[in-house]
Amino acid sequence: MRYIIHFHSNHTGTDNMANGYRPEIIQRAFVDFIGSRLHPFWSLTTPKLRLVARYPLSDDLIALRFETNSAFRQQTSEMMCGWQGGQYLDLRVYIEGVYHQRSYSIVGLAHQPLWWLDDNTESHTADQRHTVTIAIKPQGLVSDYLTKQMPLASVVDTSLPLGHFTLGQTSIVGQQISENDKPIPLLFIAGGSGITPMLGLITQALNNGHQVTLLHYNRTVSSKLQHQWQQLNDNHSDFTYHLIHTEEPTTYLAGTRYLSAEGLLSLNLPLADTQIFACGSQALLTGLYKAAAEITCSTDKQLRDNIIVENFGNSLTNVDNGSNRKFDKTIPVEEHTVYLRSRQRQFSSDTTILDAAENADVRLAHGCRQGICQLCRCNKISGVVKNVQTGKVSSDGYESIQTCINIAMTDVVLDV
Predict the structure, then answer these.
(1) pLDDT tens digits, residue range 200-218?
(2) Does the global pTM surpass 0.70?
(3) Is residue 43 helix, strand or coil?
(4) Across the strands, what pairs with 155?
(5) Residue 92 · residue 156 · CB < 8 Å
(6) In sequence order, which ranges of 39-183 are alpha helices (DSSP H)?
(7) What is the residue-wise DSSP string for 125-147?
(8) Separation of alpha carbons 345 and 192, rounded Å
(9) Which of 135, 133, 156 is nearest to 147 (CA)?
(10) What is the pLDDT of residues 371-394, one digit of tens each?
(11) Angstrom distance (rounded) from CA 96 to CA 111
């Protein structure tokens, strides 16, 4: 038996060319597959990093400098200024037959990777335009492997720069800022390794003309890190720093070991008009919100509305920020509908969106379930949600949210 197959072109090739479409003769995925077998660093589509150097930032922070591949450079070139201070990368690391994914803060900007490098640092020998540097505190399986065991020239897969702990959030509630106004003052408060997302942020803030004040609470005070901050202070008159060694009373603000209202007031900043970025432990952020609640602003605004937080470690669901008490599942929450537009599925929610989805047998992407890893982040099309960590209530429009730490305040549509 013979089969005859007819091909009907209908001049689609000519029409496609006229419309600007150019079919791929060889699929990019196939080229990537072959290329990865020839050289693991080469890819048309997958961002990859190759380790080129390690050096200490402080007694407990290690910087890892990576060369970026062409896919990373091509895709980040489409982002504003490459990436923003305060963002992070998700690295996919292969250890003993298992892939592990972890998030690490980027410590420099695309055009200014490291402000603290000395002239004799060997890392200057590489083209800084094609590198990215992250900071790691050696603790845990993946961090220990990256900082102590992974050979130089090793290649890892990476995400593009992610995260919203950036200067793009700098807008004081109720304050209209014109283009001719001086940039608002910024206060950065970090605890321990919470300093890592601050490094690129502070560089970018000073480049943009902000007055910057840094409070860094730590159990140790590194002479190396202190030298770096002093170097920055010498170069920028608008930069002030305070390193608070929690075991050394002479370093305390207002004579208090922990963050307090007295300590904040002692900085002599116009707090009502100051944007506050904070990153650290649950205890540090709880202390910040408590101190903010004790300070009365001269205007009708509340200081807590000026606070933007990023958290490492434990979940912040127990942080009392003055606007959101501890999220307790025993307290009734009004039930709303969450609609997944792409899947045409919906479910009722009276808890976090992720928990509600799982209760309805709907599977959503997730990782740490604590608002840290960002794997659950998706786009909200419409509806209002509330962040159970910070108490922040969203707008009704399009924005990126994390399902593990947001509850629906109205019916919500997600682009999932």
Answers:
(1) 889 889 988 999 999 999 8
(2) no
(3) coil
(4) 50
(5) yes
(6) 70-76, 141-144
(7) GS-GGGEEEEEE---SHHHHIII
(8) 43
(9) 135
(10) 766 778 899 999 999 888 777 888
(11) 36
